[in-house]
């Protein structure tokens, strides 16, 4: 009789625990949605003066921000969107193959001690504040990479992307992209490494038993398993690159053009860096204009994550 009572109490306790956990999980999900809605509402409300206010005053504000290069919001935000996407895409293009290679080396090729040490280093690099990367880029990388970019412009200048003359000092999109690539590399590496370590051991052993080499086993059993995780890791890194402020602000010589000239200064600017540079001296209408550009960046980030989710779902099929 006492045994049945104990089982009944345990069952009741388990059901109560399930209800509490379910309530906490639902509360956390709702909290995320509320926070997202609050941020969206704040951006829309603070950007409204740009749409409903005095358009002549808006034009004067945008002209003062751009030195007469833009006279309406579309002319103002367009080059910023272009610069943000260009810088972030280049950073991802540079970081992605290196990150996946490092992750594979840590998870499947490096000796255990070296793998453990590299994992600690990667996790440490992912936690370094962006201002540190900005200082490193501005003080160390810019003076030392100028000669390399001049060599690229000299021998590869026939390619529009590398058309010279290369700026000296090299406060250009190319240099900023390298710095951002270094910033997002540990993030992509860390997530990809964890995914590769979860690859089914039986499939790997089966591939080796069939006579596959280490690389063939990786190609057949590890990479297909981690495809969706790699995409998610890449989009996580891209999200950080899209919103990066301090490193871009400290290195890039800004411009307001739709230019693919990566080695020339004063060509492009990102939304986040532009907000940081213009905000201290902006009046109320100027702040509304900058917040409107922040809303555009918010929408871009949301769109990138939406596309990444769709790609990830297809990769899992």
Report on this structure.
- The structure is a single chain.
- The termini are far apart.
- By secondary structure, this protein is mainly α.
- Helix content is 79%, strand content 0%.
- α1 (2-52) packs across α12 (284-316), α5 (130-156) crosses α6 and α9 packs antiparallel against α12 (284-316).
Helix percent band: over 70%
Helix tally?
12
Describe the biggest sheet?
Answer: none
Radius of gyration: 25 Å
Features:
317 residues; single chain; globular; 12 helices; mainly alpha
Structure summary:
With 317 residues, the protein is mostly helical. It has twelve helices and no strands.
SSE arrangement:
Elements: H1 2-52, H2 55-66, H3 73-109, H4 112-126, H5 130-156, H6 173-197, H7 201-209, H8 214-222, H9 227-243, H10 246-251, H11 271-278, H12 284-316
